[in-house]
Amino acid sequence: MTDFPSHDLETAPEASKPLLEKSLKAFGRLPGLHKVMSESPQMLEGYQVLHKLFTETDFDADELTVVWQTINVEHACHYCVPAHTGIAKMMKVDDAISNALRDETPLPSPKLEALRTFTLAMLRDRGNVSEADMNAFFEAGYDHRAVLNVILALAQKVMSNYTNHVAQTPVDAPMQQFAWEKKSA
Predict the structure, then answer these.
(1) Domains (ranges, CATH) in the chain?
(2) Global confidence as pTM
(3) How far apart are CA 68 and CA 5, in angstroms?
């Protein structure tokens, strides 16, 4: 596969440098994903904006993690599953939630399981979810805003997951302890 550039503050395109500085300030290091995305300043900025917006939704830390990791696992993203496992720990999400998402086993609450089920339906059916899927999501306590916020997360995660697939982004050293491979086909 073609080697993708992985930039730092010196080698990045000029328009990406302030974005990488923002990443460095936020994470204390440059995540490999951001180094790869910085080849396209527009991609990196779009990703950062979508990430910020998704974290500002009504979803709590557990729900953010469920949506992100459901998409990461379904896309079999070797980089994002470990990264979001570490992020979940920083957000104080119970390991039982992270492990269930990584292992594709039932989540500890029906509401979180409904969120995962709906996110998978939205992803697998490319937005063409059934009325039954919508009703089950609403019955679990979610609303129209939550539907749109799942779509927002899908946009963000397509950017990162697909970038990591084509660039074969190495997992960052701090996240290597959470290495992961998809178990199911």
Answers:
(1) 14-54 (no CATH), 59-178 (1.20.1290.10)
(2) 0.95
(3) 25
